[in-house]
Amino acid sequence: MGNQVSDSPFHLQGSKMDLLSGLNPEQRAAVELPARSALILAGAGSGKTRVLTTRIAYLISNGLVSPSGVLAVTFTNKASKEMQARLSAMLPINTRSMWIGTFHGLCNRLLRAHYREANLPQTFQILDSSDQQSAIKRVMKALNVDDEKYPPRELQNFIGRNKEQGLRAHEVEAYDPYTRRKIEVFAAYDEQCQREGVVDFSELLLRCYELLSRNQQLREHYQERFKHILVDEFQDTNPLQYRWLKLLAGQSNALFAVGDDDQSIYAFRGANVGNMQELLRDFHVENVIKLEQNYRSHGNILDAANALISRNRNRLGKELWTAEHKGEPLRVYEAPTDMDEARFIADEVRHLHREGVALSEMAVLYRSNAQSRALEHALVAAGVSYRVYGGQRFYERQEIKHALAYLRLLVNQDDDNSLLRVINFPTRGIGARSIEQLQESAKQYNTTLFDAAARMGGKVTGFVGLIEEMRSATANLPLPEIVDHVLAHSGLMANYQNETGAKKHEAQERIDNLNELLNAATLFVHENEDDSLVAFLTHATLEAGEHQAEAGSDALHLMTVHAAKGLEFHSVFISGLEEGLFPHQNSQNEDGGLDEERRLMYVALTRARRRLYLTFAQSRMLHGQVNYNMMSSFLRELPDELLQWLSPRLTQRTPSAFRAYSPPAAGSTKLPPAPPAPVKEGAWRIGQRVFHQKFGEGTITGLEGNGTEGRVQVNFKHAGSKWLALEYAKLTSA
DNA sequence: ATGACATCGTTTTTT
DNA sequence: ACGATGTCAT
């Protein structure tokens, strides 16, 4: 996303010339394309968001389309907000009349507008993934499905995957009894959702797709309206999203897709890069415009990225270039342990900071979240302030979900998920037994839990009374007052306020968060035309808030490579460049897995503007075990002449050289973490070629223990990778 | 109802 | 190693 904002201010609004000035020929060609479908292959840092927004502004300011004829689709709320903001800066019109949003947001909007045709209650609620999981667990219980044999997680994936392919339960092929059972759960789950008036994320898309495909009148209405459909990050679309786009585009509308096949890193969640080729076929796209000029990075960084990605098969083909200098070489550092790697990074960050690079202009990237621990430890020790991205989000906190559950019940009492969440929170003496009775009764009379509860009597009916009381008391109140009322009368606030002792601190935080919810509601009213409770609840699920609430202060960014996509920094550290970690072990088995990992590495490399560090460690603590990994093959795929090694090759050091890196063992009876096995006489080493009676030839890729006892991981030429106990495996040197 | 203990899983993630 | 989740006893 945004990289050219700073060097191309649009103070001159309006006329054609102003919009196009400052664009390079390819960007300009893309913006000025005729009203036919097109694919813009936009490399990292090539100004794709600018092209997308300028295209819209160009179409509108030249009278080629009215604002209401534009449909602009993104994946994240962040991207859609940015697009909206840029457009309002470029166009002297109210961007609110344009349909700009995420796939889910737009589908929600369509379903709300046509809830009857979509067979949904007007106030339908949206399940997030954790709500969905509890819903699935309930269905499984009702169907007596063994959750050992069928992990709810797997069912959730099964349902989601199929919906993303556009498939309903009855359309899924039942290969075997196991799958047949899963299909049963799928069907029952959908029925339950329908009964309860809720939809999950993929349902939002599928239901909207079905609405438009079945209802000719509606379909034609929207096809008539959206003459120009523009899609960001097109490589991330799943099959259903693509079909949805095709449906809206119809025969004559222009689908303007912007994407980068080399940055496709979400196959694991259903994204299908193949949609790019399909688009070319289905829409008879004649020419693809490639944006290859990069405005972000120095030459060496791009050379490295190009060299790496050139090893992937089935690319549409693209090579980044820059008008800038070659810049510095990429700095490579090999550390003895993950702790040393982290210390090195903390030190470098401090140096760079002292030289004037803002902390917020630096990022440490890693393949998996578990790696942040060691980094945080070292940063705290070095006194560097940092922010870790990817924690829990605001609307996902327990107390917030509780409050939202009460609010949802006001709007839709059939929402059993919400009822179960709060019927006994705060505790009101409704235990597991009562809840079971309630579920029995609901099943028997074929009603929802709320209706069953109304019939039950006792404390349970008291809960029903509470909800009804709150509903009528808030019926005509503005949103913030509804929230305030519910926080006070549900007993939630009091529950946390009454907390004492050890939990006091935690409770105070929850109270603060509940007050923050009240603020969010107030803010929501100011920012949105539709300030109803339903709209607010939808917002809470669809826009669960920033991953990291507090911003502002200058801090180093810590995040996964995935989270870094679309961002850029002056200096970037890519850490943990080890075989098995990055590329990740699990990618070896999936087909196309290694290519996706390589694209991930490509994304990581192209985040840096000026300085790039590539670091790895000989030994790493993972899941409570010390692992010895080889250097990442990706590092080997980068041209030598672009690299500057900051560390001598550790494999050539004498054991004593390690001691300088060992933490001081002052007063500790525990041994300092074992240095990477000082190579003993006759011990096995990583990288060594070996022979095994049964498996044949191979190379040692991992080591646990000291090399004479413990186990080794051997990658056999023909038998694959295996862990062998040295005590038993008769390995010989090959 | 609630805390102590056991078990499990552990790549990436938006909506 | 560690956190989340679940079970069991009180």
UniProtKB/TrEMBL annotation:
GO cellular component: cytosol; DNA helicase complex
GO MF annotation: an example: DNA binding
Entry EC number(s): 5.6.2.4
PROSITE patterns, per database record: UVRD_HELICASE_ATP_BIND, UVRD_HELICASE_CTER
KW Isomerase (keyword) present: yes
Domain UvrD-like helicase ATP-binding as annotated: residue spans: 21-298
Keyword terms of this UniProt record: ATP-binding, DNA-binding, Helicase, Hydrolase, Isomerase, Nucleotide-binding
Top-level taxonomic group: Bacteria
One BP term from GO: recombinational repair
Catalytic EC class: isomerase
Catalytic activity: ATP + H2O = ADP + phosphate + H(+); Couples ATP hydrolysis with the unwinding of duplex DNA by translocating in the 3'-5' direction
Residues the entry annotates as binding ATP: A42, G43, A44, G45, S46, G47, K48, T49
Domain UvrD-like helicase C-terminal residue range list: 299-566
Family designation: Belongs to the helicase family. UvrD subfamily.
Name of protein: DNA 3'-5' helicase
